[in-house]
């Protein structure tokens, strides 16, 4: 008997429709957050869909973000010289997880552990990439996140 196929995190959470609901609601809530609103004041109306496409690709969905928006190097460029703080990072992660709860996204321990792992890892990279002197590796590949990822500081 063969092993059952393990779904991607993308499939488990409900795919792009769920991620779009998440990012749209999240960015509505960002506007009401005193710490986060200034960070996203420049955001245009397409931003939630772009973030949903990025998350979809990272979590095992289609490579739409890379095909249409330039992949990981483009995402890194969005953070350059924004001088993000740890307080803003923590608020971003907390609000995103609160929004996931509000929308009834999967809350089983395995999924939430994987999601929190990615959000912690990715948001900490965003803070690092937002500091002065960072350069972009135009050959950087899109991160891929699954059910039990462990990344060292030497890996992308």
What is the name of the CATH architecture? Answer: Orthogonal Bundle
How would you describe the shape? globular
Distance between the termini: 36 Å
Radius of gyration, Cα only, in angstroms?
Answer: 15 Å
Treating each run of at least 4 consecutive H or I residues as one helix, how many helices? 7
Q: What about the largest sheet?
A: none
- The ordered string of helix (H) and strand (E) elements is HHHHHHH
Output the structural class. mainly alpha
In round numbers, the mean pLDDT is 92
CATH class: Mainly Alpha
Beta-sheet strand percentage?
under 5%
Helix % is 55-70%
CATH superfamily label: Globins
The count of DSSP E runs of length 2 or more, i.e. the number of strands, is: 0
The CATH topology is Globin-like
| Number of structural domains | 1
Instruction: Point out poorly predicted stretches.
Output: none
Features:
single chain, 156 residues, mainly alpha, Globin-like, 7 helices, 0% strand
Provide a compact summary of the structure:
This protein is an all-alpha fold and 156 residues long.
What do you see in this structure?
The chain has 156 residues and is mainly alpha-helical. It has one domain (10-129): Globin-like. Helices cover 55% and strands 0% of the residues. The protein contains 7 helices and no strands. It starts with 8 loop residues before the first helix and ends in a 27-residue tail after the last helix. The model has no long low-confidence stretch (mean pLDDT 92).
């Amino acid at each position: 008997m063969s092993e059952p196929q393990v779904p991607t995190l993308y499939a488990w959470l409900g795919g792009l429709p769920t991620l779009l609901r998440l990012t749209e609601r999240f960015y509505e809530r960002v506007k009401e957050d005193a710490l986060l609103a200034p960070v996203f004041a420049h955001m245009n109306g397409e931003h939630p869909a772009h973030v949903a496409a990025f998350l979809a690709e990272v979590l095992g969905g289609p490579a739409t973000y890379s095909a249409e928006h330039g992949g990981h190097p483009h995402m890194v460029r969005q953070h350059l010289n924004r001088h993000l703080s740890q307080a803003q990072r923590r608020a971003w992660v907390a609000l995103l997880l609160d929004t996931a709860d509000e929308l009834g996204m999967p809350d089983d321990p395995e999924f939430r552990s994987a999601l929190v792992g990615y959000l912690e890892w990715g948001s900490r990279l965003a803070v690092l990439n937002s500091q002065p002197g960072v350069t972009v590796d135009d050959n950087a590949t899109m991160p891929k996140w699954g059910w039990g990822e462990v990344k060292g500081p030497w890996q992308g």
